[in-house]
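Bit of a strange request maybe. I'm writing a small parser for structure token strings and I need a real example to test against, not something I typed by hand. Could someone generate the tokens for this chain?
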Amino acid sequence: MSEPRVGWTWEQRAAVKQYLWFAAVFAVIGVAFSIFLISAGNHGGWTLLGIVGCACVVGCFIVRKGRTGEPDHEDH
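Reply from user aminoacidic:
Good idea to test on real output. This should exercise your parser:
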């Protein structure tokens, strides 16, 4: 007998979708601003690019964990 699959409700999925759009807009703005800073010779652009990249990786991990109930569980 298998255990029930733990996942998100429809309301939680809708909220996550809204938050992901919000985060994506700020990620695009952050990447564009960091490219501008790097091209202007400011080394802070690399720092901003690293922060945006780390935030994206953490966000993907959180979404994957919440979607399956377990981290890095790929068989659906």
